[in-house]
Amino acid sequence: MIGGDPDQEVLEATSRWLNQGHTVVLFTVGRTWGSSPRPAGALLAVRDDGRMVGSVSGGCVEEHLVARCQAGEWRTSRVTGLAYGTDRAEADRFGLPCGGRLELVAETLDSALDLAPLLEALANRRRVTREVDLNSGAVSIHDLQQETAFHYDEHRLVRVFGPNWRVLIIGAGQLSRYVARFAEPLGFEALVCDPRPEYADGFDWPEARLVPGMPDDAARGLAQDDRCAVLALTHDPRLDDMALMQALQSDAFYVGAIGSRANQRARLGRLAQLGIDSQSLSALHGPIGLPIGSRTPAEIAVAIVAELVAVRQGALGAARSAARAAVAGTPIGDPVQWGG
Question: Going by DSSP bridges, is the β-strand pair 188-193/209-211 parallel, antiparallel, or unpaired?
C-alpha cells in the first residue's frame, strides 16, 4: 500500500506476520495523563522476534516492550493491562514528558483470522468498531451505526477504525508530485489522475499511484467519502472542473483548486453554470492552501498539505489565523497561487 492510514499499516503487518507463523502482541494506548507523544488508541505490534510496527510513545517504551515480548512475557496471556510512568522517575526513564503516564492494553494474537473482518471492512472503506472484552479477551467487530468515540475502562476497549485517508490529485506535474511526497508520511494514500499522455506516459512515482481515465470518473469512483480529498492542480479548466463537479457533490472532506483569486471567481462562475448549487460551491477551497508566503512548487505543496491536515483535524480557522499573522506585512506569495 502506498501511503495510507498508519492503523492499516499496523494491522496489515500483523496479519502478514501471523500468517507466517509468528505470535504477535498488539498494544493499544488506553489512557494517557499529562503530555504524551501518542494519543489514546495508538497502536504498536511486536512480533515474537522483536520486529515492530507502529508506536505508543517516543521510543523508550517501545524498546522496553520489545524486550519483554522477546522474553515471552505475554506468551500465554490473552489480554493484559500495563502502565508506564507511575512516578516521575519512571516517566523520565521512558521519555514521557511533563511527568506523563501511559496505560496500555496488550493482546496476544496467534491467528490472522481475528483480523480478517477488520481488514476486509477497511478495504471496502467501511467504518467499524473493534471491541475487546478485557476480562475474557473476546473480540467483536461491528459496523459503525453512529459516531462513537474511543472508549476504555476496566471492562472493555472500544476502538473505531475507518478507511485510510486518501487524496486524489488531478494533474501529474511537479507541484502534484511534491504534494504526494509530503502527504504520504502524514497518512494519506495519494492517487493521481492525468489523462494527458505527456504526463501519464512513464509515470513512476513511488509515493503515488496513477489512476487511469478521466478526472470526473476518478472523483466519482475514488473520492466519495468523508476521508477523501480532491485537489485540482492542472490549471486547465477542462480537466480541473470535471473533477470538481463530482467532488463538490460528494462527501469528500476537502475539495480545492490551484489558481489566483481571479481564477477562483471565474471557476465558481463556470461551476454554477454547470448546475453546482451555491452551498456546494462554498465548500471549494481556493486559492488552495494556507497563506504561508509560498512561492516555489515545494512551498506551495507544503501550504496545500498543511491545509489538508488542518481541515482533517478540525483546526482550519486557527491554522489560517496563525499563518496570516506569520506573513503579516509581506506579500502573500506566488501570484498564480494567491494573487488576483
Answer: parallel
